[in-house]
């Protein structure tokens, strides 16, 4: 059974794709996170770097965005067998451009943008500047591919391009047509808004994680989409009428008191995504380390000693590691350059089988990943398209105890854990009062951003939660002490939580 679980919590949103109880995809966004990918702006060219065939464009952010010549408007006369020949950058400082963010800001680098706008739907992607019809490679039936392409070609407006996504294979022609019309109308509005917009302003904002997750992850193999917020539940049913017509029970509202992530037993799996070491099912393990330039994954035999010979032990370990590596790239959203250090293998046939297995497992990923080959030392270089922030950048922060040499849970993540612990405590012991001891940094964040205020005004109304800042409490830790006595002896630093 495959399910999509959507948890809208006090910090933001979490989306889990679960197959038979196992987490296979995980996305998280904070409410205060600056989400850029997919947004469309009216930008202004600041300067052109002729030597790099690129330009810097001001789109109203702190750092200028980067526009490469290959991301400027495609002239259909330049198309040959689906490839665009290298072309000159025909922009100058002061030009206004309609541009879309394709890669988030990372570190000191600004966002990367393109002038080749694309608007994704659930079954088609529209490219308004490219007169072209394409079909997803994952639709393998040639007869179906031709049927879909011919249909779209017959109804599409002149000058517009469309790519049929994988899900189009299982969609009605009526649904395809309706979505194409909606995307065309959306782009016409974007062009109109662009004309009247001020320079450096946002013209179109990409959908939030909840809508994107259903749009991009919901396929025919998904049995349920389970959400824990009634307004989100209603919103999704209204946004995807064709889906509810096909399957009225597709969207389900979770009404339990326990956090939906905890209820489905995913907490431990999510916490493991923040660890360096991942243990494999045979006792071997991989180590995942991120550097400034790339991510390195090291494969080790660990406790696995095999039962035949060294070569067979190494081969089996590497084969098992290929599946886990592909899974971790997907779950952690690791992008950019990735180097995998497999255990050395002398047998050339084994080396080839490991590469083939890795490529096979990577095909499950929605994000394009390329395997560059294996060196004689067993190193495999991958490149995975980098768009949105990696998981650890959202859920971790620089460790304050070791001067930035490591990472700890972010304050936001700790507060989410506190909230879940309080829910469980009130559901079981139901004390009238609680003493909550936390690190001063978490204490300040909790009150400054009024985290848990909603719960205190509704589900916990009448409960007294006293928060105590303790310098000796580790930033990732907290302590809950239920109290039956309404008269308590508290330190001066204690503060009532709303």
List the helices and strands and how they pair.
Layout: E1 2-8, E2 12-19, E3 22-30, E4 40-49, E5 54-58, E6 65-68, E7 79-80, E8 83-84, E9 96-103, E10 112-114, E11 119-120, E12 124-127, E13 133-135, H1 142-155, E14 161-164, H2 173-196, E15 201-204, H3 209-217, E16 224-227, H4 230-239, H5 241-246, E17 251-253, H6 260-263, H7 267-272, E18 277-279, E19 285-290, E20 294-300, H8 310-332, E21 336-341, H9 348-362, E22 369-374, E23 379-384, H10 391-395, E24 396-398, E25 407-409, H11 411-428, E26 433-438, H12 440-448, H13 453-457, E27 464-469, E28 478-483, E29 495-496
Parallel strand pairs: 1-16, 6-10, 13-14, 16-17, 20-21, 26-27
Antiparallel strand pairs: 1-2, 2-3, 4-5, 4-9, 4-15, 5-6, 7-8, 9-10, 11-12, 12-14, 18-19, 19-20, 21-23, 22-23, 24-25, 26-28, 27-29
Helix pairs in contact: 8-9, 11-12
Short précis:
Helix content is 30%, strand content 29%.
Tell me about this structure.
- The chain is built from 13 helices and 29 strands.
- The longest helix is centred in the middle third of the chain and has 24 residues, at 173-196.
- The protein has a six-stranded mixed beta sheet, with helices on one face. Strands 3-2-1-16-17 form a five-stranded mixed beta sheet. A five-stranded mixed barrel has the order 4-5-6-10-9.
- It is α+β, with helices and mostly antiparallel strands and 498 residues long.
- The model is unreliable at 74-86 (pLDDT under 50).
- A hairpin with a 2-residue loop joins strand 7 and strand 8 (83-84).
């Amino acid at each position: 059974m495959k399910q999509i679980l959507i948890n809208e919590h006090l910090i933001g949103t979490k989306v889990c794709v679960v197959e038979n109880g196992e987490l296979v995809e995980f996305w998280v966004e904070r409410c205060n996170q600056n989400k850029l990918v997919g947004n469309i702006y009216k930008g202004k060219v600041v300067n052109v770097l002729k030597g790099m065939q690129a330009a810097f464009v001001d789109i109203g952010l702190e750092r200028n965005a980067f526009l490469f010549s290959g991301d400027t408007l495609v002239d259909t006369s330049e198309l040959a067998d689906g490839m665009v020949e290298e072309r000159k950058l025909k922009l100058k400082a002061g030009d206004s451009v309609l541009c879309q963010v394709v890669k988030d800001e990372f570190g000191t680098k600004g966002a990367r943008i393109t002038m080749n706008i694309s608007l994704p739907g659930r079954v088609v992607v529209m490219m308004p500047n490219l007169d072209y019809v394409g079909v997803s490679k994952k639709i393998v039936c040639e007869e179906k591919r031709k049927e879909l392409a011919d249909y779209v070609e017959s109804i599409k407006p002149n000058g517009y391009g469309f790519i049929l996504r994988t899900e189009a294979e299982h969609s009605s022609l009526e649904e395809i047509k309706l979505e194409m019309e909606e995307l065309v109308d959306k782009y016409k509005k974007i062009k109109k808004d662009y004309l009247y917009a001020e320079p450096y302003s946002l013209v179109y904002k990409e959908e939030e994680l909840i809508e994107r997750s259903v749009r991009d992850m919901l396929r025919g193999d998904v049995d349920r989409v389970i959400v824990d917020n009634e307004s989100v539940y209603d919103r999704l049913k209204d946004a995807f009428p064709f889906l509810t017509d096909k399957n009225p029970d597709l969207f389900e509202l979770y009404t339990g008191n326990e956090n939906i992530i905890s209820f489905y037993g995913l907490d431990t799996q999510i916490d493991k995504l923040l660890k360096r070491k991942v243990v494999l099912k045979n006792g071997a393990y991989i180590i995942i380390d991120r550097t400034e330039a790339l991510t390195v994954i090291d494969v080790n035999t660990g406790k696995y000693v095999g039962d035949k010979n060294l070569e067979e032990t190494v081969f089996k370990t590497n084969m098992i590691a290929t599946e886990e590596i592909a899974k971790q790239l997907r779950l952690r959203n690791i992008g950019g350059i990735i180097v995998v250090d497999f255990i050395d293998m002398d047998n050339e046939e084994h080396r080839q089988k490991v590469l083939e297995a890795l490529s096979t497992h990577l095909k499950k990923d929605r994000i394009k990943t390329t395997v560059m080959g294996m060196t004689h030392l067993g190193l495999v270089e991958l490149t995975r398209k980098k768009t949105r922030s990696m998981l650890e950048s959202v859920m971790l922060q620089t460790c304050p105890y070791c001067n930035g040499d490591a990472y700890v849970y972010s304050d936001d993540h700790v507060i989410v854990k506190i909230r879940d612990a309080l829910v469980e405590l009130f559901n079981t012991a139901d004390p009238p009062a609680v003493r909550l001891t936390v690190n001063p940094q978490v204490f300040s964040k909790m009150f400054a951003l009024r985290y848990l205020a909603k719960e205190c005004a509704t589900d916990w109304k009448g409960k007294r939660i006293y928060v105590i800042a303790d310098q000796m409490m580790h930033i990732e830790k907290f302590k809950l002490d239920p109290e039956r006595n309404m008269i308590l002896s508290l330190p001066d630093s204690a503060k009532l939580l709303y």
